[in-house]
Batch of 2 targets.
Target 1
Amino acid sequence: MLKRKTLLLVDDEPANLQVLKNILSSEYRLIFAKDGSRALALACAEKPDLILLDVMMPGLSGFEVIQQLKTVIETRNIPVIFVTALSDAQNEAQGFELGAVDFIAKPVSPPIVRARVKNHLSLVRVEELKSTRLSVVQMLGKAAEYKDNETGHHVIRMSHYVHSIALAAGFSASWSETLLHAAPMHDIGKIGIPEHILNKPGKLTPEEWAVMKDHTVIGAEILEDDGSELMQIARNIAIYHHEKWDGSGYPHGLKGEAIPVEARITAIADVFDALTSERPYKTAWSVEDASDYIRENSGIHFDPQLIDVFFSCLPDLLHTKDKWHE
Protein backbone atom coordinates (compact mmCIF):
# COMPACT_ATOMS: atom_id res chain seq x y z
CA MET A 1 0.00 0.00 0.00
CA LEU A 2 1.37 3.43 -0.98
CA LYS A 3 2.15 5.83 1.83
CA ARG A 4 -0.27 8.76 1.84
CA LYS A 5 1.16 12.21 1.21
CA THR A 6 1.23 14.57 4.19
CA LEU A 7 -0.33 18.02 3.99
CA LEU A 8 0.15 20.78 6.55
CA LEU A 9 -2.97 22.97 6.86
CA VAL A 10 -2.42 26.37 8.49
CA ASP A 11 -5.27 28.74 9.46
CA ASP A 12 -6.16 30.63 12.65
CA GLU A 13 -9.88 29.85 12.16
CA PRO A 14 -10.83 26.28 13.25
CA ALA A 15 -13.83 26.38 10.93
CA ASN A 16 -11.59 26.89 7.92
CA LEU A 17 -9.39 23.98 8.97
CA GLN A 18 -12.48 21.81 9.33
CA VAL A 19 -13.60 22.68 5.80
CA LEU A 20 -10.20 21.68 4.38
CA LYS A 21 -10.19 18.53 6.50
CA ASN A 22 -13.54 17.49 5.06
CA ILE A 23 -12.23 18.01 1.53
CA LEU A 24 -8.82 16.33 1.85
CA SER A 25 -8.84 13.79 4.70
CA SER A 26 -9.94 10.85 2.55
CA GLU A 27 -6.84 11.07 0.35
CA TYR A 28 -4.08 12.57 2.48
CA ARG A 29 -2.55 12.50 5.93
CA LEU A 30 -3.30 15.89 7.47
CA ILE A 31 -1.54 17.88 10.18
CA PHE A 32 -2.80 21.22 11.45
CA ALA A 33 -1.47 24.53 12.79
CA LYS A 34 -3.45 27.56 14.00
CA ASP A 35 -0.59 30.06 13.90
CA GLY A 36 2.63 30.75 12.02
CA SER A 37 5.04 29.70 14.75
CA ARG A 38 3.39 26.28 15.11
CA ALA A 39 3.37 25.92 11.33
CA LEU A 40 7.13 26.48 11.16
CA ALA A 41 7.76 23.96 13.92
CA LEU A 42 5.58 21.31 12.27
CA ALA A 43 7.12 21.94 8.85
CA CYS A 44 10.61 21.27 10.21
CA ALA A 45 9.54 18.26 12.27
CA GLU A 46 7.17 16.57 9.81
CA LYS A 47 8.51 17.76 6.45
CA PRO A 48 5.08 17.68 4.77
CA ASP A 49 4.76 17.18 1.04
CA LEU A 50 2.72 20.38 0.63
CA ILE A 51 1.49 23.28 2.80
CA LEU A 52 -1.87 25.05 2.53
CA LEU A 53 -1.27 28.39 4.23
CA ASP A 54 -3.57 31.23 5.27
CA VAL A 55 -2.22 34.76 4.80
CA MET A 56 -4.01 36.88 7.41
CA MET A 57 -3.17 35.41 10.84
CA PRO A 58 -2.32 36.96 14.22
CA GLY A 59 1.38 36.90 14.99
CA LEU A 60 3.26 35.74 11.92
CA SER A 61 1.39 36.32 8.66
CA GLY A 62 1.44 33.73 5.91
CA PHE A 63 3.90 35.89 3.98
CA GLU A 64 6.26 35.92 6.97
CA VAL A 65 5.88 32.16 7.38
CA ILE A 66 6.85 31.40 3.79
CA GLN A 67 9.82 33.76 4.04
CA GLN A 68 11.14 31.74 6.98
CA LEU A 69 10.37 28.41 5.29
CA LYS A 70 12.51 29.42 2.32
CA THR A 71 15.53 30.17 4.51
CA VAL A 72 15.71 26.66 5.98
CA ILE A 73 17.27 23.85 3.92
CA GLU A 74 14.83 21.24 5.20
CA THR A 75 11.71 23.24 4.27
CA ARG A 76 12.64 25.55 1.40
CA ASN A 77 11.54 23.09 -1.31
CA ILE A 78 8.12 22.29 0.20
CA PRO A 79 5.47 23.74 -2.14
CA VAL A 80 3.17 26.30 -0.51
CA ILE A 81 -0.35 27.13 -1.68
CA PHE A 82 -1.91 30.23 -0.13
CA VAL A 83 -5.57 29.82 0.85
CA THR A 84 -6.82 33.34 1.45
CA ALA A 85 -9.61 35.87 1.12
CA LEU A 86 -7.04 38.34 -0.23
CA SER A 87 -7.61 38.14 -3.96
CA ASP A 88 -6.12 41.36 -5.33
CA ALA A 89 -3.27 41.20 -7.84
CA GLN A 90 -0.78 42.92 -5.54
CA ASN A 91 -1.11 40.28 -2.82
CA GLU A 92 -0.89 37.45 -5.34
CA ALA A 93 2.21 38.99 -6.89
CA GLN A 94 3.83 39.29 -3.45
CA GLY A 95 3.00 35.68 -2.64
CA PHE A 96 4.44 34.35 -5.89
CA GLU A 97 7.54 36.50 -5.43
CA LEU A 98 8.07 34.91 -2.01
CA GLY A 99 7.89 31.43 -3.53
CA ALA A 100 4.26 30.28 -3.38
CA VAL A 101 3.19 27.88 -6.12
CA ASP A 102 -0.50 28.80 -6.18
CA PHE A 103 -3.40 30.77 -4.64
CA ILE A 104 -6.84 29.42 -3.72
CA ALA A 105 -9.53 31.97 -2.91
CA LYS A 106 -11.85 31.72 0.09
CA PRO A 107 -14.53 30.53 0.35
CA VAL A 108 -12.90 27.44 -1.16
CA SER A 109 -14.40 25.18 -3.79
CA PRO A 110 -13.79 21.47 -2.96
CA PRO A 111 -13.10 20.42 -6.59
CA ILE A 112 -10.61 23.27 -7.02
CA VAL A 113 -8.81 22.46 -3.75
CA ARG A 114 -8.50 18.76 -4.67
CA ALA A 115 -7.34 19.53 -8.21
CA ARG A 116 -4.73 22.12 -7.19
CA VAL A 117 -3.31 19.89 -4.46
CA LYS A 118 -3.12 16.89 -6.79
CA ASN A 119 -1.48 18.91 -9.57
CA HIS A 120 1.23 20.37 -7.38
CA LEU A 121 2.02 17.03 -5.74
CA SER A 122 2.35 15.60 -9.26
CA LEU A 123 4.84 18.34 -10.14
CA VAL A 124 6.86 17.49 -7.04
CA ARG A 125 6.90 13.84 -8.12
CA VAL A 126 8.14 14.80 -11.58
CA GLU A 127 11.00 16.81 -10.07
CA GLU A 128 11.89 13.89 -7.80
CA LEU A 129 12.03 11.54 -10.78
CA LYS A 130 14.20 13.99 -12.75
CA SER A 131 16.56 14.30 -9.80
CA THR A 132 16.74 10.53 -9.40
CA ARG A 133 17.45 10.01 -13.10
CA LEU A 134 20.20 12.63 -12.96
CA SER A 135 21.77 10.90 -9.97
CA VAL A 136 21.78 7.58 -11.82
CA VAL A 137 23.43 9.20 -14.85
CA GLN A 138 26.14 10.74 -12.65
CA MET A 139 26.78 7.46 -10.85
CA LEU A 140 27.14 5.57 -14.12
CA GLY A 141 29.55 8.24 -15.31
CA LYS A 142 31.69 7.61 -12.23
CA ALA A 143 31.54 3.87 -12.87
CA ALA A 144 32.91 4.40 -16.38
CA GLU A 145 35.77 6.49 -14.94
CA TYR A 146 36.78 3.71 -12.55
CA LYS A 147 36.73 1.09 -15.31
CA ASP A 148 38.70 3.25 -17.70
CA ASN A 149 41.24 4.27 -15.06
CA GLU A 150 40.73 7.88 -16.15
CA THR A 151 42.17 10.78 -14.22
CA GLY A 152 39.78 11.95 -11.56
CA HIS A 153 38.63 15.26 -13.01
CA HIS A 154 38.38 14.45 -16.72
CA VAL A 155 34.62 13.98 -16.71
CA ILE A 156 34.04 17.10 -14.60
CA ARG A 157 36.18 19.31 -16.82
CA MET A 158 34.80 17.90 -20.05
CA SER A 159 31.20 18.36 -18.88
CA HIS A 160 31.81 22.00 -18.05
CA TYR A 161 33.58 22.49 -21.38
CA VAL A 162 30.54 21.27 -23.31
CA HIS A 163 28.29 23.49 -21.19
CA SER A 164 30.38 26.58 -21.98
CA ILE A 165 30.56 25.77 -25.69
CA ALA A 166 26.80 25.16 -25.91
CA LEU A 167 26.01 28.49 -24.23
CA ALA A 168 28.49 30.33 -26.46
CA ALA A 169 26.92 28.67 -29.52
CA GLY A 170 23.57 30.21 -28.59
CA PHE A 171 21.76 27.22 -27.16
CA SER A 172 19.31 27.81 -24.31
CA ALA A 173 20.43 27.71 -20.69
CA SER A 174 18.07 24.77 -20.10
CA TRP A 175 19.41 22.68 -22.99
CA SER A 176 23.01 23.54 -22.11
CA GLU A 177 22.37 22.43 -18.51
CA THR A 178 20.96 19.13 -19.76
CA LEU A 179 24.07 18.69 -21.90
CA LEU A 180 26.24 19.34 -18.84
CA HIS A 181 24.54 16.45 -17.04
CA ALA A 182 24.50 14.10 -20.04
CA ALA A 183 28.14 14.52 -21.05
CA PRO A 184 29.61 12.38 -18.22
CA MET A 185 28.04 9.38 -19.96
CA HIS A 186 30.11 9.72 -23.13
CA ASP A 187 32.32 6.70 -22.39
CA ILE A 188 29.91 4.60 -20.33
CA GLY A 189 30.23 1.83 -22.92
CA LYS A 190 33.82 1.19 -21.84
CA ILE A 191 32.31 -0.79 -18.97
CA GLY A 192 31.81 -3.52 -21.60
CA ILE A 193 35.38 -3.48 -22.94
CA PRO A 194 37.86 -6.09 -21.57
CA GLU A 195 40.39 -4.52 -19.23
CA HIS A 196 43.40 -5.99 -21.03
CA ILE A 197 42.38 -3.92 -24.05
CA LEU A 198 41.12 -0.87 -22.18
CA ASN A 199 44.28 -0.46 -20.10
CA LYS A 200 46.88 -1.75 -22.55
CA PRO A 201 49.92 0.56 -22.31
CA GLY A 202 51.02 0.05 -25.91
CA LYS A 203 49.36 0.39 -29.29
CA LEU A 204 46.27 -1.72 -29.90
CA THR A 205 46.25 -4.35 -32.62
CA PRO A 206 43.62 -3.94 -35.39
CA GLU A 207 41.55 -6.65 -33.69
CA GLU A 208 41.80 -4.95 -30.31
CA TRP A 209 40.94 -1.58 -31.85
CA ALA A 210 37.81 -3.07 -33.40
CA VAL A 211 36.74 -4.24 -29.93
CA MET A 212 37.57 -0.85 -28.38
CA LYS A 213 35.40 0.99 -30.92
CA ASP A 214 32.42 -1.07 -29.77
CA HIS A 215 32.25 1.04 -26.59
CA THR A 216 30.12 3.54 -28.51
CA VAL A 217 27.50 0.96 -29.41
CA ILE A 218 27.60 -0.59 -25.94
CA GLY A 219 27.07 2.87 -24.45
CA ALA A 220 24.00 3.41 -26.61
CA GLU A 221 22.59 0.05 -25.51
CA ILE A 222 23.12 0.92 -21.84
CA LEU A 223 21.40 4.27 -22.33
CA GLU A 224 18.56 2.92 -24.46
CA ASP A 225 16.22 5.87 -24.97
CA ASP A 226 13.47 6.11 -22.36
CA GLY A 227 11.89 9.20 -23.91
CA SER A 228 13.45 11.82 -21.64
CA GLU A 229 15.52 14.61 -23.15
CA LEU A 230 18.41 13.87 -20.79
CA MET A 231 18.67 10.22 -21.80
CA GLN A 232 18.22 10.98 -25.51
CA ILE A 233 21.13 13.41 -25.37
CA ALA A 234 23.26 11.05 -23.26
CA ARG A 235 22.64 8.22 -25.73
CA ASN A 236 23.49 10.40 -28.74
CA ILE A 237 26.71 11.51 -27.10
CA ALA A 238 27.71 7.95 -26.18
CA ILE A 239 27.25 6.52 -29.66
CA TYR A 240 28.27 9.49 -31.85
CA HIS A 241 31.05 11.40 -30.06
CA HIS A 242 33.73 9.61 -32.14
CA GLU A 243 32.08 10.46 -35.46
CA LYS A 244 34.01 13.03 -37.53
CA TRP A 245 32.84 15.97 -39.59
CA ASP A 246 34.37 14.51 -42.79
CA GLY A 247 32.72 11.11 -42.29
CA SER A 248 35.88 9.22 -41.28
CA GLY A 249 34.78 8.52 -37.68
CA TYR A 250 32.99 5.60 -36.07
CA PRO A 251 30.78 3.63 -35.49
CA HIS A 252 28.60 4.66 -38.46
CA GLY A 253 30.73 7.06 -40.49
CA LEU A 254 28.23 9.90 -40.16
CA LYS A 255 29.18 13.16 -41.85
CA GLY A 256 28.61 16.85 -41.13
CA GLU A 257 25.30 17.84 -39.60
CA ALA A 258 24.09 14.24 -39.70
CA ILE A 259 26.05 13.95 -36.45
CA PRO A 260 23.86 15.23 -33.57
CA VAL A 261 25.11 18.59 -32.38
CA GLU A 262 25.49 17.37 -28.78
CA ALA A 263 28.00 14.78 -30.03
CA ARG A 264 29.84 17.37 -32.14
CA ILE A 265 30.22 19.63 -29.10
CA THR A 266 31.35 16.75 -26.89
CA ALA A 267 33.95 15.63 -29.45
CA ILE A 268 35.73 18.98 -29.22
CA ALA A 269 35.60 19.10 -25.42
CA ASP A 270 36.73 15.48 -25.04
CA VAL A 271 39.71 15.84 -27.39
CA PHE A 272 40.80 19.15 -25.88
CA ASP A 273 40.82 17.70 -22.37
CA ALA A 274 42.51 14.47 -23.47
CA LEU A 275 45.28 16.38 -25.22
CA THR A 276 45.93 18.78 -22.34
CA SER A 277 45.89 16.07 -19.65
CA GLU A 278 48.67 13.73 -18.63
CA ARG A 279 48.09 10.02 -19.14
CA PRO A 280 50.23 6.98 -18.31
CA TYR A 281 51.11 6.72 -22.01
CA LYS A 282 51.62 10.46 -22.78
CA THR A 283 52.58 13.80 -21.33
CA ALA A 284 50.11 16.68 -21.34
CA TRP A 285 50.18 18.90 -24.40
CA SER A 286 50.37 22.64 -23.94
CA VAL A 287 47.17 24.60 -24.48
CA GLU A 288 48.82 26.20 -27.52
CA ASP A 289 49.67 22.86 -29.13
CA ALA A 290 46.23 21.43 -28.37
CA SER A 291 44.60 24.56 -29.81
CA ASP A 292 46.69 24.25 -32.97
CA TYR A 293 45.62 20.61 -33.36
CA ILE A 294 41.95 21.48 -32.97
CA ARG A 295 42.25 24.38 -35.42
CA GLU A 296 44.03 22.16 -37.97
CA ASN A 297 41.23 19.58 -37.71
CA SER A 298 38.42 22.05 -38.25
CA GLY A 299 36.33 20.66 -41.09
CA ILE A 300 38.06 17.28 -40.79
CA HIS A 301 37.37 15.98 -37.31
CA PHE A 302 35.35 18.91 -35.98
CA ASP A 303 32.41 21.10 -36.99
CA PRO A 304 34.02 24.35 -38.30
CA GLN A 305 31.33 26.61 -36.83
CA LEU A 306 31.74 25.00 -33.41
CA ILE A 307 35.51 25.44 -33.62
CA ASP A 308 34.95 29.19 -33.94
CA VAL A 309 32.73 29.00 -30.87
CA PHE A 310 35.34 26.94 -29.03
CA PHE A 311 37.97 29.62 -29.49
CA SER A 312 35.54 32.38 -28.55
CA CYS A 313 34.99 30.78 -25.13
CA LEU A 314 38.50 29.40 -24.61
CA PRO A 315 39.16 31.74 -21.64
CA ASP A 316 36.17 30.15 -19.86
CA LEU A 317 37.47 26.67 -20.64
CA LEU A 318 40.90 27.54 -19.26
CA HIS A 319 39.27 28.83 -16.08
CA THR A 320 37.53 25.45 -15.72
CA LYS A 321 40.81 23.66 -16.45
CA ASP A 322 42.58 25.60 -13.68
CA LYS A 323 39.73 25.00 -11.24
CA TRP A 324 39.65 21.22 -11.81
CA HIS A 325 43.32 20.54 -12.45
CA GLU A 326 44.76 17.16 -11.54
Target 2
Amino acid sequence: MSVPKNHHYISQAHIRNFFNNEKNEIYLFDKIQNRHYKKNTTKRIFSEKNLNTKRLADSTYDYSTIEEELNQNFEKDFPGCVAIVKKFIETKNLNDETQEALIYLSGYGLIAELRTPFRKKHTDDTLKNGMKIIMEMGTDELKAEYERFFGFDDEVKYSNSLNYIEFANNVIKAMGDLILSIEIPQNENDYFILPDFGAATVRERINNHFNPDAKEIAYIGLPLTSKLYLHFCSSKLKILPRPPGIHYVTSDQIYMLNKANYDYAHQTIACENSEYLQNFIVKFDPLKQRL
Protein backbone atom coordinates (compact mmCIF):
# COMPACT_ATOMS: atom_id res chain seq x y z
CA MET A 1 0.00 0.00 0.00
CA SER A 2 1.21 3.51 -0.79
CA VAL A 3 1.71 5.86 2.15
CA PRO A 4 -0.41 9.05 1.95
CA LYS A 5 1.75 12.13 1.47
CA ASN A 6 -0.99 14.77 1.47
CA HIS A 7 -0.87 15.96 5.07
CA HIS A 8 -3.48 18.25 6.59
CA TYR A 9 -2.43 21.10 8.85
CA ILE A 10 -6.05 21.56 9.87
CA SER A 11 -7.61 18.20 10.59
CA GLN A 12 -10.35 17.02 8.27
CA ALA A 13 -12.46 16.26 11.36
CA HIS A 14 -12.28 19.96 12.13
CA ILE A 15 -12.84 21.19 8.57
CA ARG A 16 -15.98 19.04 8.27
CA ASN A 17 -17.61 21.19 10.96
CA PHE A 18 -17.57 24.03 8.42
CA PHE A 19 -18.78 21.93 5.50
CA ASN A 20 -22.25 22.51 4.06
CA ASN A 21 -23.65 18.97 4.11
CA GLU A 22 -26.90 20.02 2.46
CA LYS A 23 -25.13 21.36 -0.64
CA ASN A 24 -22.09 19.13 -0.27
CA GLU A 25 -19.78 22.16 -0.52
CA ILE A 26 -17.44 24.28 1.53
CA TYR A 27 -16.77 27.91 0.61
CA LEU A 28 -13.35 29.53 0.71
CA PHE A 29 -11.79 32.93 0.18
CA ASP A 30 -8.16 33.50 -0.76
CA LYS A 31 -7.30 36.96 0.54
CA ILE A 32 -3.99 37.13 -1.33
CA GLN A 33 -5.55 36.33 -4.71
CA ASN A 34 -8.84 38.06 -3.80
CA ARG A 35 -10.74 34.97 -4.95
CA HIS A 36 -13.86 33.16 -3.82
CA TYR A 37 -14.06 29.46 -4.61
CA LYS A 38 -15.65 26.26 -3.35
CA LYS A 39 -14.78 22.60 -2.88
CA ASN A 40 -16.89 19.45 -2.80
CA THR A 41 -14.51 17.62 -0.45
CA THR A 42 -12.16 18.36 2.42
CA LYS A 43 -9.33 16.21 1.06
CA ARG A 44 -7.28 19.05 -0.47
CA ILE A 45 -8.21 21.89 1.86
CA PHE A 46 -5.64 23.18 4.35
CA SER A 47 -3.15 20.50 3.37
CA GLU A 48 0.28 20.22 1.78
CA LYS A 49 2.30 17.40 0.27
CA ASN A 50 4.89 16.03 2.72
CA LEU A 51 3.99 18.57 5.38
CA ASN A 52 4.83 16.09 8.18
CA THR A 53 7.51 14.04 6.47
CA LYS A 54 10.80 13.60 8.33
CA ARG A 55 14.25 12.57 7.10
CA LEU A 56 15.74 9.78 9.19
CA ALA A 57 19.40 9.37 10.11
CA ASP A 58 19.96 6.92 7.25
CA SER A 59 18.51 9.48 4.78
CA THR A 60 15.29 7.50 4.32
CA TYR A 61 11.92 9.20 4.71
CA ASP A 62 9.31 8.82 7.45
CA TYR A 63 5.92 9.83 6.05
CA SER A 64 3.65 8.48 8.76
CA THR A 65 4.95 8.80 12.34
CA ILE A 66 3.86 12.41 12.90
CA GLU A 67 0.60 11.76 11.08
CA GLU A 68 -0.16 8.80 13.35
CA GLU A 69 0.75 10.73 16.50
CA LEU A 70 -1.50 13.62 15.51
CA ASN A 71 -4.35 11.26 14.73
CA GLN A 72 -4.07 9.32 17.97
CA ASN A 73 -3.70 12.33 20.26
CA PHE A 74 -5.53 15.25 18.61
CA GLU A 75 -7.80 14.00 15.82
CA LYS A 76 -9.29 10.55 16.34
CA ASP A 77 -11.59 11.62 19.18
CA PHE A 78 -12.29 15.10 17.84
CA PRO A 79 -15.86 14.38 16.55
CA GLY A 80 -16.78 12.67 19.81
CA CYS A 81 -15.52 15.61 21.84
CA VAL A 82 -17.55 18.03 19.71
CA ALA A 83 -20.66 15.93 20.42
CA ILE A 84 -19.90 16.06 24.16
CA VAL A 85 -19.60 19.87 24.05
CA LYS A 86 -22.95 20.11 22.27
CA LYS A 87 -24.51 17.89 24.93
CA PHE A 88 -22.99 20.07 27.66
CA ILE A 89 -24.61 23.16 26.12
CA GLU A 90 -27.98 21.45 26.37
CA THR A 91 -27.61 19.95 29.87
CA LYS A 92 -25.17 22.41 31.53
CA ASN A 93 -23.71 19.35 33.28
CA LEU A 94 -19.93 19.82 33.55
CA ASN A 95 -19.09 16.22 34.38
CA ASP A 96 -15.79 14.35 34.06
CA GLU A 97 -16.53 13.35 30.47
CA THR A 98 -17.13 16.96 29.49
CA GLN A 99 -13.98 18.18 31.22
CA GLU A 100 -11.87 15.50 29.48
CA ALA A 101 -13.36 16.51 26.11
CA LEU A 102 -12.55 20.17 26.77
CA ILE A 103 -8.94 19.38 27.73
CA TYR A 104 -8.65 17.35 24.52
CA LEU A 105 -9.94 20.25 22.42
CA SER A 106 -7.72 22.77 24.19
CA GLY A 107 -4.71 20.59 23.34
CA TYR A 108 -5.81 20.52 19.72
CA GLY A 109 -6.09 24.31 19.73
CA LEU A 110 -2.66 24.74 21.30
CA ILE A 111 -0.82 22.95 18.51
CA ALA A 112 -3.04 24.19 15.66
CA GLU A 113 -0.89 27.03 14.33
CA LEU A 114 2.35 25.12 14.96
CA ARG A 115 1.21 22.57 12.36
CA THR A 116 0.84 25.12 9.56
CA PRO A 117 3.36 25.46 6.70
CA PHE A 118 3.99 29.15 7.37
CA ARG A 119 4.72 28.57 11.08
CA LYS A 120 6.95 25.59 10.35
CA LYS A 121 8.94 27.58 7.81
CA HIS A 122 9.28 30.54 10.15
CA THR A 123 10.51 28.27 12.95
CA ASP A 124 13.05 26.53 10.71
CA ASP A 125 14.31 29.83 9.27
CA THR A 126 14.78 31.25 12.77
CA LEU A 127 16.60 28.13 13.94
CA LYS A 128 18.77 27.96 10.82
CA ASN A 129 19.82 31.60 11.02
CA GLY A 130 20.54 31.28 14.72
CA MET A 131 22.86 28.32 14.17
CA LYS A 132 24.56 29.57 11.02
CA ILE A 133 27.47 31.40 12.63
CA ILE A 134 28.16 28.54 15.00
CA MET A 135 28.08 26.01 12.17
CA GLU A 136 30.54 28.04 10.10
CA MET A 137 33.09 27.60 12.88
CA GLY A 138 32.24 23.95 13.48
CA THR A 139 33.93 20.75 12.38
CA ASP A 140 33.33 19.22 8.97
CA GLU A 141 31.18 16.58 10.62
CA LEU A 142 29.07 19.21 12.36
CA LYS A 143 28.70 21.19 9.15
CA ALA A 144 27.57 18.07 7.32
CA GLU A 145 24.95 17.40 10.00
CA TYR A 146 23.77 21.01 9.73
CA GLU A 147 23.39 20.67 5.95
CA ARG A 148 21.55 17.37 6.34
CA PHE A 149 19.16 18.77 8.95
CA PHE A 150 18.28 21.82 6.86
CA GLY A 151 18.63 20.16 3.46
CA PHE A 152 14.98 20.53 2.52
CA ASP A 153 13.58 19.30 -0.79
CA ASP A 154 10.26 18.15 -2.25
CA GLU A 155 10.16 15.13 0.09
CA VAL A 156 11.22 16.90 3.29
CA LYS A 157 10.17 20.54 3.53
CA TYR A 158 10.57 21.15 7.27
CA SER A 159 12.62 19.82 10.16
CA ASN A 160 9.45 18.68 12.00
CA SER A 161 11.41 18.54 15.24
CA LEU A 162 8.61 19.64 17.58
CA ASN A 163 6.98 17.09 19.89
CA TYR A 164 3.32 18.19 19.74
CA ILE A 165 2.18 15.96 22.60
CA GLU A 166 4.84 17.20 24.98
CA PHE A 167 4.24 20.81 23.97
CA ALA A 168 0.48 20.63 24.56
CA ASN A 169 0.84 18.88 27.92
CA ASN A 170 3.43 21.37 29.17
CA VAL A 171 1.38 24.41 28.13
CA ILE A 172 -1.84 23.10 29.67
CA LYS A 173 0.04 22.44 32.90
CA ALA A 174 1.50 25.95 32.86
CA MET A 175 -1.89 27.54 32.19
CA GLY A 176 -3.36 25.94 35.32
CA ASP A 177 -7.14 25.79 35.61
CA LEU A 178 -8.89 26.65 32.36
CA ILE A 179 -11.86 29.00 32.29
CA LEU A 180 -14.27 28.27 29.45
CA SER A 181 -16.41 30.64 27.42
CA ILE A 182 -18.65 29.28 24.65
CA GLU A 183 -20.13 31.65 22.08
CA ILE A 184 -23.15 30.80 19.92
CA PRO A 185 -24.74 33.03 17.25
CA GLN A 186 -28.06 34.62 18.21
CA ASN A 187 -28.96 34.92 14.54
CA GLU A 188 -29.26 31.67 12.59
CA ASN A 189 -27.85 33.48 9.53
CA ASP A 190 -24.50 34.12 11.24
CA TYR A 191 -21.56 31.74 10.97
CA PHE A 192 -18.08 31.46 12.39
CA ILE A 193 -15.31 31.17 9.82
CA LEU A 194 -12.38 28.75 9.92
CA PRO A 195 -9.02 30.51 9.31
CA ASP A 196 -5.99 28.68 7.95
CA PHE A 197 -4.20 28.75 11.32
CA GLY A 198 -6.88 26.61 12.97
CA ALA A 199 -6.95 28.23 16.41
CA ALA A 200 -5.50 31.36 18.01
CA THR A 201 -3.26 31.62 21.06
CA VAL A 202 -2.26 34.68 23.06
CA ARG A 203 0.69 34.99 25.43
CA GLU A 204 0.67 36.87 28.72
CA ARG A 205 2.71 36.93 31.94
CA ILE A 206 0.95 34.30 34.06
CA ASN A 207 3.76 32.62 36.06
CA ASN A 208 5.41 35.57 37.78
CA HIS A 209 6.95 33.50 40.58
CA PHE A 210 9.20 31.58 38.17
CA ASN A 211 10.03 34.01 35.38
CA PRO A 212 8.23 37.36 35.65
CA ASP A 213 9.51 38.56 32.26
CA ALA A 214 8.38 35.54 30.23
CA LYS A 215 5.08 35.53 28.40
CA GLU A 216 3.36 32.15 28.15
CA ILE A 217 0.24 30.99 26.35
CA ALA A 218 -2.71 32.13 28.43
CA TYR A 219 -5.58 32.05 25.92
CA ILE A 220 -6.80 29.66 23.22
CA GLY A 221 -9.52 30.65 20.75
CA LEU A 222 -10.96 27.73 18.82
CA PRO A 223 -13.70 28.06 16.16
CA LEU A 224 -15.08 24.60 16.83
CA THR A 225 -17.94 24.60 14.33
CA SER A 226 -19.82 27.13 12.23
CA LYS A 227 -22.04 27.71 15.26
CA LEU A 228 -19.70 27.19 18.24
CA TYR A 229 -16.61 29.13 19.32
CA LEU A 230 -14.61 28.04 22.35
CA HIS A 231 -12.44 30.40 24.40
CA PHE A 232 -10.06 28.84 26.94
CA CYS A 233 -8.44 31.24 29.39
CA SER A 234 -5.88 30.61 32.10
CA SER A 235 -7.31 31.24 35.56
CA LYS A 236 -4.03 33.07 36.27
CA LEU A 237 -5.08 35.96 34.03
CA LYS A 238 -6.00 39.09 35.95
CA ILE A 239 -8.47 40.20 33.27
CA LEU A 240 -10.36 37.62 31.23
CA PRO A 241 -10.83 38.43 27.52
CA ARG A 242 -14.20 36.68 27.60
CA PRO A 243 -16.63 36.14 30.51
CA PRO A 244 -17.01 32.47 31.49
CA GLY A 245 -20.12 30.54 30.59
CA ILE A 246 -22.32 30.03 27.54
CA HIS A 247 -23.18 33.19 25.60
CA TYR A 248 -25.45 33.88 22.64
CA VAL A 249 -23.69 36.66 20.76
CA THR A 250 -24.82 39.31 18.30
CA SER A 251 -24.02 39.62 14.62
CA ASP A 252 -21.64 42.48 15.35
CA GLN A 253 -19.74 40.41 17.91
CA ILE A 254 -19.39 37.53 15.45
CA TYR A 255 -18.28 39.89 12.71
CA MET A 256 -15.53 41.35 14.90
CA LEU A 257 -14.29 37.89 15.90
CA ASN A 258 -14.35 36.67 12.29
CA LYS A 259 -12.57 39.82 11.14
CA ALA A 260 -9.80 39.29 13.69
CA ASN A 261 -9.33 35.74 12.43
CA TYR A 262 -9.40 36.91 8.82
CA ASP A 263 -6.79 39.58 9.51
CA TYR A 264 -4.46 37.05 11.15
CA ALA A 265 -5.05 34.33 8.54
CA HIS A 266 -2.07 33.74 6.28
CA GLN A 267 -4.08 33.32 3.08
CA THR A 268 -7.36 31.39 3.26
CA ILE A 269 -10.55 31.23 5.29
CA ALA A 270 -13.42 28.74 5.01
CA CYS A 271 -17.12 29.04 5.74
CA GLU A 272 -20.20 26.84 5.65
CA ASN A 273 -22.39 29.48 4.02
CA SER A 274 -21.53 31.11 0.68
CA GLU A 275 -23.77 34.16 1.11
CA TYR A 276 -22.45 34.94 4.59
CA LEU A 277 -18.85 34.66 3.40
CA GLN A 278 -19.41 36.96 0.45
CA ASN A 279 -21.22 39.56 2.57
CA PHE A 280 -18.55 39.32 5.24
CA ILE A 281 -15.76 40.08 2.77
CA VAL A 282 -17.63 42.97 1.15
CA LYS A 283 -18.60 44.50 4.52
CA PHE A 284 -15.08 45.48 5.54
CA ASP A 285 -13.68 45.84 2.04
CA PRO A 286 -16.30 46.86 -0.58
CA LEU A 287 -13.67 46.60 -3.32
CA LYS A 288 -13.42 42.82 -2.90
CA GLN A 289 -15.15 40.97 -5.69
CA ARG A 290 -18.09 38.66 -5.20
CA LEU A 291 -18.14 35.08 -6.42
